[in-house]
Amino acid sequence: MEQYKQEKNMDMLGTSRLSLGEGKHLIDRLEREHGLANPEMAALIESNCPELRDYARVKARGIADRQYGKGIFIRGLIEFTNYCKNDCYYCGIRCGNAKAKRYRLSTEEVMACCREGERLGFRTFVLQGGEDPYYTDERMVELIRRIRAAHPECAITLSIGERERESYERFWEAGADRYLLRHETASESHYRKLHPHNLSLERRMQCLKNLKEIGFQTGCGFMVGSPGQTARQLAEDFAFIRKLHPEMVGIGPFIPHHDTPFANEARGGLELTLYLLSLLRIQQPDLLLPATTALATIHPRGREMGIEAGANVVMPNLSPSDVRDKYSLYDGKVCTGDEAAECRECLERRIESVGYHVVVGRGDHRGHIRCGMTPATRTPMAFLN
Length: 385
Ligand code: SF4
Description:
The chain is of the alpha/beta class. The protein is built from 14 helices and eleven strands. The strands form three sheets. It has a six-stranded parallel sheet with strand order 3-4-5-6-7-8. A three-stranded parallel sheet has the order 10-2-11, with helices on one face. The chain binds iron/sulfur cluster (SF4). The site of iron/sulfur cluster has 9 residues, from loops. Iron/sulfur cluster binds next to loops.
């Protein structure tokens, strides 16, 4: 890991480390009560050490096995536009990065990715992009409808940022099933360190609430070790997740991008990320929890270690290989050169190496009814007041 001179596992403020016995006791309580008070969670996070990580990992993996068995869900990621109108300080495709080489896939290119994905056994397509004004609601609806018609057995996940509630409703009605929108941090002060002033945490939270209410299987998430992050703020993330009760949570280490204001910041730690994955699984046993590409980027066995820590989803890339290196959110991203078929085979080998197997199926959240193909058969779920 020569390229990473610095690794940050926590930037603590005022919490105290627990003894091993106290830490195990809190992990047991987290399992029983599915949540801890913020100071307790912060202390548990700050007490990250090999023994507690092992204790949490074994417990988390057992919980994941009981919830989802030995199957790992795969999602085919299609990064269809790297244009973005926002300027998040941590992101390589922020609008302020004039060096980013921009691209949009055509509808035909997206459809070709889906065809190849279905042939390879993918039954979920994740359409991910920056907040690209070119993709109006009309264009998104058209794209969703085409994928829905061509692949009626597949789930469609969107990851295209903040939109009005009406837009989300239109996407849902067009046939999208799931939506990923990382909240990045549940702390207002931390949010302000990561984003310019035209973006607001309140709006992001409202978007997540809207998505849940409409009926999307909803994913939030955050970077581990992002600049200025403390254990107390991570505890706020856990509290927020407890309240939102999302179907998915995506976390991965913060990795700096050389053309951003955070170019010289330390990256997030591998061990802390794995520990938090385990704590998330223990807090909310039914989560769909990805072992992220960022985790694989900071360690050659990152995905496998993520699965061992309690993850049950992987999201390899189905985008055409000639655009993959342009979707550069952070430096050193792995798997930018492989064809989809190579990725799929490599992933299968990796998953089998830790005693698990790839599931060919939609991989819906276990508490969620299978959504069906028409909006009329779906049951919106209301959460949060
Ligand atoms: S994090 Fe998302 S919204 Fe922010 S600049 Fe990057 S792509 Fe755009």
